[in-house]
Amino acid sequence: MDIGIAFDLKSDFTAAPGAPDDRLEEYDSERTIAAIEAALSRRGHRARRMGGGKRFLAALLAEPPELVFNVAEGAGSRSREAHVPAACEMVGVPCTHSDPLTLALALDKALAKSVVAAAGVAVARGAVVSRVEQLAALDLPFPCIAKPLFEGSSMGVRKGSKSGDGEQLRRDVLRLLTGYEQPALVEEFLTGPEFTVGILGSGESARVLATMEIHPRGGATADFVYSVEVKRVWDEQVEYHVPPRRPPALVAAIEAVALASYRALQCRDVGRVDVRLGADGRPRFIELNPLPGINPGWSDLCVLAERVGVDHDALVGRILEQALARLARS
After folding, report:
1. What pLDDT, on a 0 to 100 scale, did the predictor assign at position 250?
2. b/e sequence 263-300, b meaning 16+ C-beta within 10 Å
């Protein structure tokens, strides 16, 4: 097949002066795109780079591929992850990963939680805050955690993002509103262990690839924040347990939350769902990434896949297989 790769590199963008140091955290490296390209080529496909944004549009119109392998994060709005699949829909070119509606919906953490909660899945309680003055009416117990409403890769989530009182929360929300120019989502801080679940497939055929527990190397689990600082040096800060060192019944409950959330948001081909236990020991949905990073040896999806014998090359192949099987059924 002629497969175009849609992507955005960190080097494609320049952060504004004074912007937080993680403003480009979502975007890919040359190494990641080269690995995807090689994996597709090894399967006999013609893999060609199409880039993202206007460059992708120009390439799509000039020489439409048979399929787009989409890892483009987009830029400019809360719908940024939907740009590539929307363009593909307009010109009739199929693509891997979820459709534009799911990608836009999942990026808005509050909207995604509303849909998941409506499906009967337990979620972390929270509220959207656009101005610090709204915090006075917030009906959440401390501790709380605040994060940008529509970002990924733990952008804006720092080691100090757990707030124990109103003044600390006010400072953190102000930091987010100023630095990321979007509302903040304030949530109850779940004090149990954190897990992430990799899923392959679409609809009722979706299945768990693996579940990974994120265990802090230092400090108490009840205080742990899976922050951008931690992710950057994860091998020093955390241990990844695949499978989790937890009772099978609990792992099954975590995976049930993840699968129900994935299906509620109508994800396709691949996704990664974050789940954390509350003080009562019950798993709760935190958020879902239908366009998970696939940076070899670093991204959570790649790490958990490798722990169950699926290397990066095979993971790219499985995502492609899921997309092709889905398209064959449609």
Report:
1. 98
2. bbbbbbbbbbbbbbbbeeeebbbbbbbbbbbbbbebbb
